[in-house]
Structure formats: C-alpha cells, structure tokens
Design brief:
This protein is an alpha/beta fold and about 350 residues long. The protein has 14 helices and twelve strands. The protein has three domains: about 45 residues, 434 Repressor (Amino-terminal Domain), CATH 1.10.260; about 130 residues, Response regulator (Rossmann fold, 3-Layer(aba) Sandwich); about 150 residues, 3-Layer(aba) Sandwich (Rossmann fold). Helix 1 crosses helix 3, helix 6 crosses helix 13 and helix 8 runs parallel beside helix 9.
C-alpha cells in the first residue's frame, strides 16, 4: 500500500507538503496541490483519515457528484427538467438498500470533479455516480482500483456504465402520435446542433415520418436555440413566420423543450394564431411548471429523470455486488408522451386538402 512518502516522491514534493494538502493546514499552490492529488490517484493512496474504514470490508457509502444543487433553479438549460430529480431517484434506492449517499456539488465547475472523486475515494466509498446536467459526452479522470462508477445523463468513450434518456424513441413516439392525430406537416424547432439529444431526436423524427410514408421536408426543421441569449425569441419568431408562409404550412410545431414551447405560444398569439384551433404546439421534457400551467396545457414528452436515477442506483448496486461488470452498453430509459390540449386532431377533410397541395 502506498505511503505519504511514495506520494511525495511521485509528485516531486516533500512529505510535509503532501501532509499540508491532506490536512489543509498550510498554504499550497494550485499546481502543487494538483500534482499531489494526481500522484495519490495514480498510486491509489488512501489518506489516514480513512484508516478506520479500511479495516471494514464495507463502508456503506456511495459518492454522488452533480451540479443539480447549485443549478436547480435554472430552467434555461438544455435539460429543461432539474436534474435534481435524478438525485432523488438515486437517494430512494440507496436508502432502501441501507447505503449512505454522500453528495458533492460542482457549482458548475467541471475542474472540481477530479478533486471530488479523490475526496470520495479517500472516504472509501463503495461506488461513485456522476450526474450530468443534460445528455452529453463527458471525460472523467480514470479511477484506479475496483471502485465502480456509473454515469447518468451522460456517457464517455471508455465504456463506463451509463444510464441515459432514450431521446430517439421519445421524439419518435411524439411524432408518431401526431401523425395518428392526422397531422402531416410537422415542424420541428430543434435545440443546438451540437447537443446529443438533437441528433437522436432528429433521427426519431425522421423515422416516424418515414414509417408513415411522409416525406422529410428540410424547410420544416430549424435550430432555434441560442442558449437563452438575447435574440432567441426573434429567431423563433422569424422561423415560425417563414414556415407559416410556406405554400403548405405546418399544422403543428414540435419544440426542442418546453421552455421553447412557452415562447412559441406567445409568438403565435402575437400573430393572431389560436393554439390549438389554428396551430398545434408540442414540447419536450414534461417540465410540469410550464407544461401544466400553460393554457391550453402542453402536449410533451417525459424526460424520465427520476426513473433514470433509480436505474443508475440499481446498476451501481449490482456492480458493487460484482454483477454486470462486463456490461458496457448504456442503459436507455424512455418516458411517455403526455397528450394534452395544445394539440388538436386534424379533420379528414383537412388531411385530404394537405395531400392535394403536396401532389400539386
């Protein structure tokens, strides 16, 4: 087992400096601290404050790293739903299993993650969970030893066990339901192109159209996401205006998230268009603060964050017990379509008219 002197040698510092880093009882430069922490991580060094736990075969502790606490009040992020729901799902399972969940918040600073991992490992956690704020690819420092890690709402190139939302299936289910309601011209106002969910949901959108024998019209798909910055409402307004002026305009607008749908409601009304009598609107997230308080209530797709938290906790517990360690495939979690009054059924006569316009 590595000692403080081994750490000092690898880091190129004195044992006293290593002690200062461990105990926080003296000034240490940022680069020196990072070098010491990297050496401890590489050597698998366990500080003495965890010696008591080392004598026990199990600590009963699980470490969770998230930004949910510091960003819980923000709805302008791509996630739409607070990822705090993921944490709640994890906590429910861990409590039932008799495990103690230790939570650390990144405060939106990804550079703190390596230090938080080291801190949890020094307390001999039996497993780690990392929760991302929205579906994305991440790169975390390699964890030495046998401590399992589960990623939630994210994935990496290393094949770390992950639990992610099934965005492709969610958008497919929504568009399929819209088609069954008679809609044939379905506009899609997307989130930013670089977001993983945008690519997956775009595939689901096209799959549903193809299955119904409907063409994919690029004129009905537009990125309207400026990350909440000034000008986003103008971009959405211009996009809607252009689409409604098409020879064969859309009968429904699918939005990248419920926040965007909220803006679409206001824009359509400013144009004198009634929702859903003249134009239908659908969102994504089922962010209930928006979806259930809008008038009419918003049709949307559930981002199953609580279920994702539950599945992540279950997967970590299995890994801790030695099960499923060879399974590197991400676990996809789907949510239902919540059909509400923002979408109207298109009458057969209107469907015939739309087909005639396209054929001409």
């Amino acid at each position: 087992m590595a000692t403080i002197y081994d750490v000092a040698k690898v880091a190129g510092v004195s044992a006293k400096t290593v002690s200062r880093v461990l105990n926080g009882d003296g000034p240490v430069g940022r680069e020196t601290r990072e070098a010491v922490e990297a050496a401890m991580r590489d050597l698998g060094y366990v500080p003495s404050n965890a010696a008591r736990m080392m004598r026990a075969s199990k600590s009963g502790l699980v470490g969770l790293i998230t930004g949910a606490i510091s960003t819980a009040g923000e709805i302008a992020r791509p996630a739409g739903l607070p990822d705090l729901f993921i944490v709640q799902g994890i906590q429910q399972v861990m409590a039932q299993a008799g495990m103690t969940l230790m939570i650390a918040d990144t405060a939106g600073r990804s550079e703190t993650v390596p230090h938080l991992i080291d801190t949890f490992l020094s307390h001999r956690v039996e497993g780690l969970i990392y929760v991302a704020e929205y579906h994305q690819q991440v790169r975390l420092p390699k964890i030495t030893g046998q401590t399992p890690l589960v990623l939630v709402n994210c994935f990496d190139d290393a094949g770390t066990p992950a639990v992610v939302p099934d965005d492709q299936r969610g958008q497919y289910a929504l568009v399929n339901r819209l088609i069954r309601a008679g809609h044939r011209r379905i506009a899609y106002l997307t989130l930013r192109d670089e977001i993983v969910a945008t690519r997956l949901r775009g595939t689901g959108y096209r799959e549903a159209l193809a299955e119904a024998g409907l063409p994919h019209d690029p004129a009905l798909v537009q990125n309207c996401d400026l990350e909440g910055r000034d000008g986003e409402t103008q971009l959405i307004w211009d996009t809607i205006d252009r689409m409604l002026r098409l020879p064969d305009p859309p009968t429904v607008f699918c939005c990248g998230n419920d926040k965007m749908a909220l803006a679409v409601y206001g824009i359509l009304r400013s144009m004198g268009r009634k929702v859903p009598d003249e134009v239908s609107v659908a969102g994504y997230d089922n962010y209930r603060v928006i979806a259930e308080t809008l008038y009419p209530p918003l049709t949307t797709v559930d981002l199953p964050y609580t279920a994702m938290g539950v599945r992540a906790a279950q997967r970590l517990l299995a890994l801790i017990s030695g099960e499923g360690r060879d399974d590197r495939s991400p676990l996809l979690v789907a949510g239902p379509v919540h059909w509400r009054a923002s979408v109207t059924e298109v009458r057969p006569a209107n469907i015939h008219h739309l087909k005639t316009v396209r054929e001409d």
